[in-house]
Amino acid sequence: MKTSLSLISFIFLSRPLFTATLLLLSHCIIVRSDANDLISQTCKNTPYYNLCVTSLASVPTSSTADVQGLALIMVDIVRDKARTTLEFIDQELKRSPELGQPLRFCASSYDAILTADIPEAIEALQKGDPKVC
Q1: What is the pLDDT of residue 37?
Q2: What is the pTM of this model?
Q3: How many CA atoms lie within 13 A of 55 on its CB side?
Q4: Domain containing 104: what range?
């Protein structure tokens, strides 16, 4: 039971980060001079303010980033979380084969994030055209 709860907690931790990234990409208008204020003001446009601020503040380069840079930092954070989640799911599949179907379903969602959503977000940001499809 403990394993299932930690899996669910971990998956939901990653999903809000992904949602925060999508919303961060759609609100790339804010301009502030103070880095902490920029992070704070940008994260206010997301549904998970505290998670957004904590995540961005954990990356040293966020203190000198503009909004586009913050979005790219968040994309990297989401990519790392998705990879870690896939590794966790793989371990759980080996440990609990009876959970194969739901775990494979979750894995396919995270695989889609890594193979489609992340590259699309990076490309859009690099082109200066951040859109949420």
Answers
A1: 86
A2: 0.70
A3: 28
A4: 2-127
